[in-house]
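Researcher: Can you fold this with flavin-adenine dinucleotide in place?
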Amino acid sequence: MAKRTRVSIVGGGIAGLALAAALDPTRCQVTLHEAEPDRAASGSALTLWPAATRALRRLGAGELVDRHTHRVSGGTIRDLRTSRRLLPTASARLTIVPRPDLLAALEACVPASVQREHVQVDDPQALEADVVVGADGVRSRVRALVRRSRPERTPTSYLALRGLSDRVPQPDEVGEYWGRGRLFGLVPLAAGAYWFTTHRSTLGPEPIDPGEALAEVRDVFTGTAAAALQVLATARAEEVVATRLWVAPGMARYARGRYVLIGDAAHAMTPNLGRGAGDAIIDAVTLAPVLGSRLGTARWQARRLPFTQGARIASGGVMQLALSGQPQRLLGKA
Ligand SMILES: Cc1cc2nc3c(=O)[nH]c(=O)nc-3n(C[C@H](O)[C@H](O)[C@H](O)COP(=O)(O)OP(=O)(O)OC[C@H]3O[C@@H](n4cnc5c(N)ncnc54)[C@H](O)[C@@H]3O)c2cc1C
């Protein structure tokens, strides 16, 4: 029998779990290193694009996709102060998954043969493996072994708050509300809704106290759309996730020697295209069959890098447009 490739995955979030689930245990001996296996992931949900849901089906998580895919009507871009539609309304089938459900479904796809290490990896170079995959998110330590100069993440001036609400929104409330320096979003779930805000803030950088952040958001969103005010008035600080938005540096490669990057470690972007988690899953599913082959990994990089770096740049552009306060002018609709 051919010798199995020893694969160490640093980070057991969405990217790391998806890769551990996708690797063939007869070909790879996999160790998954996760610093916080019991991490709380409440208060947020993720929109997944069709390519990501197809990748989830390939992993065996089709039931999760079916359970969380439904038709959303009324979703559109609105003006944050007046609720007026800035773009025409479209009804679309969307997959919106609570983050804990996605992590649980990926966990269920990981074979028992994967060895689990509940540790923070401080020195990825010390790992005994043929291949080390950095699935360690935007703060990645493995990134410095692939991009040697300035591998650090960069903060934006913006803070994101996310939460779940029990109330099912009306179709004319659903959508993303854009305003100068602040943004609100409301997305219906199978039961209730997922909401998010982005606003300019000096809180943090980390950790950010959700109570302080929620108070700041309530203040900053005074006088905005009724849907935003209602959601923010009933939000409870202990159920809100508050994070500074960070981005990864631009990358000219995702692999060097035995090190490979996937997910946010490779291309953390602002959330405005709603595709970071989906791209993490697609990275994993497409990398798995070629991992251990230098040529296969180089071909994978040639396919995935332009696409995901393009998404990273485009996402930043959409954030600027959304927060510019004059999207109509910039969209050429004035
Ligand atoms: C406000 C907001 C909204 C978003 N909305 C969407 C959306 O709607 N749709 C979408 O597709 N994406 C969305 N995203 C992006 C998405 O959350 C990320 O792209 C996704 O979580 C990336 O997954 P990951 O596994 O690469 O990284 P992470 O989720 O960051 O996981 C990294 C894991 O590695 C572990 N780790 C880190 N360092 C080490 C170490 N040294 N040793 C051991 N373990 C380590 C961490 O504990 C963590 O579990 C959003 C992001 C934000 C901030």
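Model: Folded with flavin-adenine dinucleotide in place. The mean pLDDT is 93.
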